[in-house]
Design brief:
Helices cover 31% and strands 26% of the residues. With 192 residues, it is of the alpha/beta class. It has a single domain, classed as Maf protein (Alpha-Beta Complex).
């Protein structure tokens, strides 16, 4: 089996990949993550996932390189990581009582053959109706400023949900393991 490389510095993705009990290393790709004019959210995450994997191919020949990227979509608007309390509060107020769809792009690049599998896994969160006081309590408790949509689904953020729907809950956290397993199996990887 070719060595696995996760093209990410995300602690969340690293923790998810560790669930598969496979040896892997991590390296952070340096790419431009700008949204292109007239590019759909799905095309954006698929492109960025593949670009992250390909960015490391030159320095990691003969590897299986995993790239992933995620955006949250509220209505027609892409919402990213808030980075600040104020922006997180604004995002959660806008999401109150609405549905937020998380689109996670996934790429698995065999840097030896150049073969790249790319997909997008959607996951929708239907939010509870939230007032400003509840949002502020949540933000002070969890500080999810590095999370698209302003919540941590693997933590207290789940208390903000009315319901969820999608093929793979791990895609909500940033690395869709069910789809990744399919890709790894196609490359001959044996999953314990």
């Amino acid at each position: 089996m070719l060595p696995l490389l996760l093209a990410s510095s995300s602690v969340y993705r690293r923790e998810l990949l560790a669930r598969l009990q496979l040896e892997f290393t991590c390296s952070s790709p340096d790419i431009d993550e700008s949204h292109r004019h007239d590019e759909s959210a799905i095309d954006l995450v698929k492109r960025l996932a593949e670009e992250k994997a390909r960015a490391l191919a030159g320095s990691h020949s003969a590897h299986l390189i995993i790239g992933s990227d995620q955006v949250a979509v509220l209505g027609e608007r892409i919402i990213g990581k808030p980075h600040t309390f104020e922006k997180a509060r604004e995002q959660l107020l806008a999401s109150s009582g609405a549905s937020v769809t998380f689109l996670t792009g996934l790429a698995l690049l065999n840097s030896q053959t150049g073969q790249c599998q790319v997909d997008c896994v959607p996951f929708t969160v239907h939010m509870r109706t939230l007032d400003q006081a509840r949002i502020e309590r949540y933000l002070r408790a969890e500080q999810p400023y590095d999370c698209a949509g302003s919540f941590k689904a693997e933590g207290l953020g789940v208390s903000l949900f009315q319901s969820t729907e999608g093929p793979d809950v791990t895609s909500l956290i940033g690395l869709p393991l069910i789809r990744l397993i399919d890709m790894l199996l196609a490359e001959g990887v044996r999953i314990p």
